[in-house]
Amino acid sequence: MKKIAVLPGDGIGPEVMAEAIKVLDAAQKKFAFELSYEFADVGGIAIDNHGEALPPATLALCENSDAILFGSVGGPKWESLPPQQQPERAALLPLRKHFDLFCNLRPARVFKSLTAACPLRPDIVGEGFDILCMRELTSDIYFGQPKGREGAGPDERAWDTMTYTRAEIERITRIAFETARIRRNKVTSVDKANVLTTMVLWREVVMEVHKEYQDVELTHIYVDNATMQLVRDPHQFDVLLCGNMFGDIISDEAAMLTGSMGLLASASLNANKFGLYEPAGGSAPDIAGQGIANPIAQILSAAMMLRYSFGLDEAAAAIDSAVESVLDKGIYTKDIAIDKSKAVGTAAMGDAIVAAL
Ligand SMILES: NC(=O)C1=CN([C@@H]2O[C@H](COP(=O)(O)OP(=O)(O)OC[C@H]3O[C@@H](n4cnc5c(N)ncnc54)[C@H](O)[C@@H]3O)[C@@H](O)[C@H]2O)C=CC1
Ligand SMILES: CC(C)CC(=O)C(=O)O
Ligand SMILES: [Mg+2]
């Protein structure tokens, strides 16, 4: 029996999490494995209920579980709190750091039946594309010290520190090359080495590690060009290797190129393959509470959990196929429906995926 810490969080988090649990329940019956779930508050809801975004009991549950299934945190209700107390900074970043979840996998692929929902020109998207955004998740400007703010008036200033160690770059780069070998053998490293010293080190280390992976094609690209090339010709990319901030930005862009933020799943893993699984998007306050959020990113994140944390490849593949077959039948939530009047809600999408499974 594998124990899952389920942290639905805020906004659409609980809505899409309910559908992922339905799908996991159906997968357990079909493939004869057993999961136990324990739910806990995280993010804004935890501030409301317990006075802090990452209560000790939630962290203890995660420590005593085999994997973490995470929804999303944050929203306008908590935006006026001091920055250090906001749900994203006080819960999600510390969780990633605590478990050393440095390797964030965000696969962006266009489902065949969704090419019409994809914002790219049909001649560009063709039959679809398949990119793996590999984002370093525990360093960079999000974590670098010092951070600060001081003064007042026109001289008031604020600062963050972009920082990477050689070891941090090496470990994510090695995984990028290993992963490319089981994909299409190509790594594009995204940096800004023309301006940032941190990124000069990034590029140097990527080139050094590449000496051990000469069979893998390596290209370097500046981040501004990368965002443009993604729109111009996404087919040129296989594994996009990014630091924390650039990967954050690039993965949202890649998500939308597939049709919606609500489609992009993610896995955040440490060296022992302990993982936190969450949609790449946030709590979507603009649609929360309406029952219209797309649960597919959360469901595919649960499938990634089965695959990476538990080696249940067959069950994971069956969930992926169930999602694909539901989309093939023209069952769409509002974000991906061309004819919005025919869109189904969050629960109906979950039910359809369970039925397909
Ligand atoms: N991992 C996390 O917990 C993350 C939390 N956030 C937080 O979430 C809050 C909202 O952030 P935003 O910048 O608005 O980004 P967001 O990703 O929540 O929303 C961006 C857009 O994508 C749409 N969207 C996202 N997920 C969707 C889904 N499943 N189905 C249909 N549409 C979907 C939203 O409706 C919105 O129009 C903020 O407090 C932010 O800090 C943002 C990103 C990640
Ligand atoms: C707290 C943020 C870094 C969350 C986010 O936008 C992400 O992980 O994609
Ligand atoms: Mg993001």
- The structural class is alpha/beta
The global form is: globular
Strand order of the largest sheet: 2-1-3-12-11-4-5-10-8-9
* Domain module count: 2
Would you give an account of this structure?
With 357 residues, this protein is of the alpha/beta class. It has 2 domains: 1-106 and 259-357, Isopropylmalate Dehydrogenase; 119-257, Isopropylmalate Dehydrogenase, CATH 3.40.718.10. Helices cover 41% and strands 17% of the residues. It is built from 12 helices and 12 strands. The strands form 2 sheets. The chain has a 10-stranded mixed beta sheet with strand order 2-1-3-12-11-4-5-10-8-9, with helices on both faces. A hairpin with a 6-residue loop joins strand 6 and strand 7. The longest helix is centred in the first third of the chain and has 19 residues, at 13-31. The radius of gyration is 20 Å and the shape is globular. 49% of the residues are buried. The structure holds 1,4-dihydronicotinamide adenine dinucleotide, 2-OXO-4-methylpentanoic acid and magnesium ion (MG). 2-OXO-4-methylpentanoic acid binds at residues 88, 92-93, 142, 248, 280.
